[in-house]
Amino acid sequence: MSAGEPALAASRADAGVGGVVALRGVSKDYGATPALAPVSLDVAPGAFVSLLGPSGCGKSTLLRIVADLVEPSAGSVTVAGRPAREARERRDYGMVFQAATLFDWRTIRRNVELPLEVMGWRAAERRARAQRMLELVDLADVADLRPPQLSGGMQQRVAIARALAFEPALLLMDEPFGALDELTRERMQDGLLAIRARTGTTVLFVTHSIPEAVFLSSSVVVMSARPGRVLAEIPVDLPEPRTEDTREDPRFFQLVTEVRETLRRGVRP
Amino acid sequence: MRQGARRAIGVTGVLAALVLLWEGYRALALATGATWPIAVRGTGNAQQFPHVWDIVLAYGRPYRGAGETLGAFLVGEAGATLREVAVGFALGVVIGFALGTLFAHSRLAERALMPWVVVSQTVPFLAFAPILVVATGSIDALPDWSGVALLSTYLVVFPMTVGTLRGLRSAPASGEELLRSYGASAWTRLWRLRVPAAVPQLFAAAKVGATAAVVGAIVGELSAPGAGGIGGALFDFGRVSNNALQLFATALAAGLLGIAAYTVVALAERAVLRRFTGVRA
Amino acid sequence: MTTPAATPAAVAGAAPAPGAGLVRRSAGAAAPLALGLGVLVVWEVAVRALGIRPILLPPPSAIAAAVVQDLPRLAGATWVTGRSALLGFAIGAGGGFLAGLAASRWRPLREAVVPVGVVLGSLPIVATAPIFNLWFGALSIWSKVAVVALVVFFPVLVNTVAGLASAPASSQELLRSYAAPGRTVLTALQIPSALPFVFGALRVAAALSVIAAVVAEFFGGFRDSAGFFIKTLMANADYTGAWATVVALSAFGLALFGAVALAERVAMPWRRDDRGVRT
Fold first, then answer.
1. Overall fold of domain A17-29+44-56+67-92+171-269
2. Whole-complex ipTM
């Protein structure tokens, strides 16, 4: 179908070995200040892993190290079986930021097409894919509007469509719902899970909301205050698919409590 | 501080590059006898392209053969220009602040007047310079240089109006509500909240205004026969002497005057910030 | 940033606005138009009633009559001055934009160019006019064009550099995450982000170019130029004629400003949308 496709299939095959993301002793210092203590972490194919911790604990930095947007001071990072730099250059992951980061000078459709343009797809293929992605996030009817005309939640859905447009095996999300109100936020969480049920994408998700992490994830990585280190990785055994009822499930509350107590231990060592 | 040092090095580098560029251009023009992109009359005549250091040294040389040096002469003329700048600037700041405050408090005034203030910037007002200078000259009660000062005033009013308006608007709404909850009058709210909040923008506007005032004064002077000042000196040297060295030295002096006006306002800003906030700018 | 272009909203509001929102805009124009008319009436009446001499202030009716009567000559003078302004504007703005693009490639240069450009741009650049007269001759269009180009160059340079660096960090990270080459980052992100800055500078530059051209003519220029007219008419005590010349020149300045505002709307359609119909 396009130049991008075979490479993506290959990356999926590779991903089976050693996890989609494998971090070994990754740390980051800014000058003499340690921001991130050595962290080791594996993300299995198809997993939804949340990085949870207080503000400034380095969880966003960790995500950016995976994305090769920040250089680690030490340690090794592999994404889809390759060094992070190579993975970025092969476009093995899609990324969603806290701000939707849409370009006002492009229509919604052309925003979703942006990564495909950078990757050299042909116009007709770009258009078809963008259309499918907008249908996926239920925004096909606003394709020809511009970003400022959309609400914050809609903008973030466009950003998700854009990140998934080239069907990466891995989605990196940096507090994507942090700027939204509580009701919109829960709706976005439901939508994200529905999309993932259809695409099977592996997700690494940064948040500071405990219920959000528990509701979405297959496992929650709890981090300590700066310099961040991993306090615990808590598997989430809530039944699938997660629905509105999941938020009322006693097990949900138990897990929220468990995560919260782990977090508190990290604040008072 | 480290960033400041790096910036200082960068700025020095750019200035050094400009000097080098000029000297290189000069050497090329003299060597090839041609200038790019436009032919200069009498190219090959080294006098047309003075060395940077010759321009600086010219300040110490006698001016028009008399005992007085060019530097001393220009300092005297700069003093005359500075008086016009100071009066024009002060008046412009007062008018601009008053207009900005009016606009901040009256939607009607803003809607009716602001478009004219903006249009006034698209009008080549400096073209009025000869008219204004002659008109004020015809009023005996005003000193000769008042038309020149008024030209400066005009150029100061726009940045001051906009700066005041934005500065007063920048005060947080919550602060306004807090003072209202104390039953504070509009006057108190203005002086206790809005004006302090506007200080950074006021000084930013005043710095733009100070350099604009120098431009206004120089243009005013060259439109007023015999008005003297740096503008008058430029006009006379350009017309009479055809002496490149004196022209370059005077143009450079005009630039230094602009920097001086800017620096005075910047120093005032630093003093005010230190006095009222303890912040070292 | 540093230029008085600081009021994009206000300036844009003053520009003619075809299409949607015309009704609302014309209602918004009522107050300033009423004020303008009022000022003209008061001016006319005051000049006549108080017997103000034309040397101080000619009545608007006399200025209008002079404009109509002398139209061909005024139009000619305005064009002589205006073409210097246009040529200098094009050269200075083009040069400033290209220099800004070049300076942005290298970080130390970019950081140094902005403060130096701001300082040089705020200096009385018109003082270089007699130097250019000496070089190119007072009766060469290039001595005027050079002054205009130099005056226009710095605001465009500074705002281009600032605009190219204005894209938010997350947008740059986004393109980095696609491993986008530098050229793509420039065309897809940096230049569109810079356009509002560049056009802000161009609006300021449009006004500056006419001013610079006429001031350069005060130092000596063509006998049929607006700058020469204004000085000689004043010397010959034809004050109304001098006013009429300034009015003609102002019309040219407004037209140039309007052309830039129009180009801005065409170049940045997204800016039109977001203050538009939907919310």
1. Rossmann fold (3.40.50)
2. 0.85
